[in-house]
Design goal:
Layout (H helix, E strand, L loop, with lengths): L18 H16 L14 H6 L5 E4 L8 E6 L2 E7 L2 H5 L33 E5 L10 E3 L15 E3 L6 E3 L19 E5 L2 E4 L5
Antiparallel strand pairs: 1-9, 2-3, 3-4, 5-6, 6-7, 8-9
The protein binds FE2/S2 (inorganic) cluster (FES).
């Protein structure tokens, strides 16, 4: 369970001398406040102490075997929250049909790992890994599942992520919708599989 911090906009509480710490406080604070939104999908955030210790620098290994279908685990890497989502077939199907509404459906604009340049933005489509920080001003979007209690989102919302700071919306692959302030898709961190159920965040060199 995430600690609960006040929801804070970075445009109000910028601390230039320690940007990573500021960004992490903002991210965890918004994620904690938004946890109540995830009612339809059993998203779970977990911060293991060992992962906290590793987060200061090197790669972080994540065990994905305990993430249920439709669930999410959050780990800390270099002071940032990294989401690992186990997608269901329904979540994968929901990535199609709204490409014309997206800023960059093919992830061609911003620099991304080559394995993110596909509609699922993933090495394995059923597992989505992304940095949970809005590309507008650094808040952490909340998970906004299809069929969940998502105030402000349309009734036919296909599922994805919503940033409460200024209203940016992202689909289930972290692709940003048009006419919202966030300019680019959510960032995909370098990562690779270290086994069938283990992912190494921060290292894709092997
Ligand atoms: S920080 Fe402004 S929309 Fe996310």
């Amino acid at each position: 369970m995430n600690p609960t911090f006040p929801i804070t906009c970075p445009s109000v509480h910028a601390t230039p001398s320690d940007p990573d710490k500021r960004q992490w406080l903002i991210a965890t604070g918004v994620a904690g406040g938004a946890a109540a939104l995830a009612t339809a999908v059993p998203f779970v955030s977990t911060f293991a102490p060992s992962e906290r210790a590793k987060a200061a620098g090197g790669p972080v290994e994540v065990d994905i075997s305990d993430i249920p279908p439709g669930g999410m685990k959050t780990v800390e890497w270099r002071g940032k929250p990294v989401w690992v989502v186990r997608r269901t077939p329904e979540m994968l199907a929901a990535l199609q049909g709204h490409e014309s509404e997206l800023v960059d459906p093919q992830s061609a604009k911003e620099q991304q790992p080559p394995y993110a340049k596909n509609p699922a933005r993933a090495i394995k489509p059923e597992v989505f890994v992304a940095i949970g920080i809005c590309t507008h001003l650094g808040c952490s979007p909340s998970d906004a599942p299809k069929g969940g209690n998502n105030p402000g989102l349309p009734a036919d919302w296909p599922g994805g992520f919503f940033c409460p700071c200024h209203g940016s919306t992202f689909d289930g692959a972290g692709r940003v919708y048009r006419n919202k302030p966030a300019p680019t898709n959510l960032e995909i961190p370098p990562h690779r599989y270290a086994g069938a159920t283990r992912i190494l965040i921060g290292d894709d060199t092997a």
